[in-house]
Design goal:
The chain is 35% helix and 20% strand. It has 511 residues and is α/β, with parallel strands linked by helices. Strand 10 and strand 11 (320-322) form a beta hairpin. The chain binds 6-O-phosphono-beta-D-glucopyranose. 6-O-phosphono-beta-D-glucopyranose binds next to helix 10. It is an enzyme of class 1 (oxidoreductase).
């Protein structure tokens, strides 16, 4: 792995973070604008930012795709997506101002004329809407197209703006499919854009509850003293989804759950949960701490005992019969792609030595929930009779990332009555009850940071590469060891995953 080179612009980072965070003159170009992500997340996020007054009046949105659309057709698609998916109420005047800055460029990624037209469109927008030459290029396209698009941007002088304007590249996950492909991709991108203008998206970092991990740990005194191997028995990080793969067969088959979310979202959650306190929250310092802990992550020696992969079979969910993975449209009936993965990791440092981190994810599980559970050791000595405490589990602190955002602390309490009986109770913090402010969508936050040039919430190339380095041996092991174990849709995954924890004398939480 290469050393940590500066990927921030010091002038930009000197901005006072308490000033209102409003983007300056700028525009966004989306490649792959007809895709799901664009319609469900990016377009609504642009509108929501505009509605909240966080975009400049001349903000411009350019779509680039193969469809034979005029600007008005594109604007209509954005309109429908905003109406359907935006978080904030629809306001005609906000929409009108935004729609005036919408342009569509028709073409394929290898089409030189299309990129020449894109350049013309950007120059026009600079004149008409005062975008100042500042444009971000959002690559919401399959990874195999990243190099072509990036090289085209360079070839058509789009990767550098006039004067002191900026040009940025935004890259959606998956960033490669293993270490070698990620390194190659990083080389291609860094060849065209300076490191501080490359924004790799991991939308989990834009979630309010994920940012709160740092607040919980480092703005308080009561948790951190316990946050180590002397008190913590193990940590469980769960990202469970009840949905199947929907219309994403083309993307998902051959990728699977571990590459889809463990390599990025779950390892980022692990890094934030396990890292040391950064001396400040600037991007360079944060990444240094995250990398230190990712570098200390190790896989156990026997991957057959400490990893599990599964694939959903037909079952029932929400009262409806749902198809198994192999019956989904577009899936190879002999596919061995994992839709469930569980991996045990160790962190070899003074704070965490001997404390397992269990990561699991899956589609078509019991319900949609993402949480980080820090499970504490039992009291070293109990003065109570074992019969009094038989219903007492281990103390736990659970960061509920979604959907019921908050934090739960589980501990033992005396059951009211004449006997000494102790049972688990919970103490809850719920965002909805404590705050009147609603949380912005992750993409809203990330798009604003992108336009402001704030790289804090975007993984660096070293983190991405290190995460692949952690996962690659698991994928290699799976590729040469049979098939994923089937599990019935609507359940909590394959039995082998329960066995994996049982062998360690533990069990998965049922969130
Ligand atoms: C994406 C994965 O990164 O995250 C999807 O590619 C997954 O497979 C999605 O469904 C889940 O995101 P969220 O924000 O709904 O938890």
């Amino acid at each position: 792995m290469s050393g940590i080179e500066p990927e921030t612009n010091p002038l930009r980072d000197a901005q006072d973070r308490r000033l209102p965070r409003i983007a300056g003159p700028s525009g966004l170009v989306i490649f792959g604008v007809t895709g799901d992500l664009s319609r469900k997340k990016l377009m609504p996020a642009v509108y929501d930012l505009s509605n909240r007054g966080l975009l400049p009046p001349g903000f411009s949105l350019v779509g680039f795709a193969r469809r034979d659309w005029a600007d008005e057709d594109f604007a209509r698609v954005v309109h429908d997506s905003v109406k359907q998916h935006a978080r904030t109420p629809f306001r005609e005047e906000v929409w009108r101002q935004l729609a005036e800055g919408m342009r569509f460029v028709q073409g394929t990624f290898d089409d030189d004329d299309a990129f020449t037209r894109l350049r013309g469109t950007i120059e026009e927008l600079d004149k008409e809407r005062g975008t100042g030459g500042n444009f971000a290029f959002y690559l919401s396209v399959p990874p195999k197209f990243f190099p072509t698009v990036v090289r085209q941007l360079k070839k058509h002088q789009l990767s550098e703006g006039p004067g002191d304007s900026w040009r940025r590249a935004v890259i959606e996950k998956p960033f490669g499919h293993d270490l070698a492909s990620a390194q190659e991709l990083n080389r291609v991108v860094h060849d065209v854009f300076p490191a501080h203008e490359v924004f790799r998206i991991d939308h989990y970092l834009g979630k309010e509850t994920v940012q709160n991990i740092l607040a919980l740990r480092f703005a308080n005194t009561m948790f951190e003293p316990l946050w180590n191997r002397s008190y913590v028995d193990h940590v469980q990080i769960t990202m469970a989804e009840d949905i199947g793969i929907g219309g994403r067969a083309g993307y998902y088959d051959g990728i699977g759950s571990a590459r889809d979310v463990i390599q990025n979202h779950l390892l980022q959650l692990l890094a934030l949960t396990a890292m040391e306190e950064p001396s400040s929250f600037d991007a360079d310092t944060l990444v240094t701490e995250k990398l230190k802990v990712l570098n200390a992550v190790n896989l156990p020696a026997d991957l057959g005992r400490h990893t599990v992969r599964g694939q959903y079979a037909a079952g029932w969910q929400g009262g409806e019969k749902v198809a198994g993975y192999l019956e989904e449209e577009g899936i190879d009936p002999a596919s061995v792609t994992d839709t469930y993965a569980a991996i045990k990791l160790e962190i070899d440092n003074r704070r965490w030595a001997g404390v397992p981190f269990y990561l699991r994810t899956g589609k078509r599980l019991g319900r949609r929930v993402t949480e980080i559970a820090v499970v504490f050791q039992r009291a070293p000595y109990s003065p109570f009779n074992t019969t009094d405490t038989q219903e007492l589990g281990r103390n736990a602190l659970v960061i509920r990332v979604q959907p019921d955002e908050g934090i739960t602390v589980r501990f033992g309490s005396k059951v009211p009555g004449t006997q000494m009986e102790i049972r688990d109770v919970t103490m809850d913090f719920a965002y909805g009850e404590s705050f009147t402010e609603s949380s912005p969508e992750a993409y809203e936050r990330l798009l604003l940071d992108l336009l402001l040039g704030d790289t804090n919430l975007f993984p660096r190339h070293q983190e991405v590469e290190r995460s692949w380095e952690i996962l690659d041996p698991v994928e290699e092991y799976w590729a040469s060891h049979g098939k994923p174990e089937p599990y019935t849709a609507g359940t909590w995954g394959p039995k082998a995953a329960d066995d994996m924890l049982a062998r360690d004398g533990r069990s998965w939480r049922r969130p």
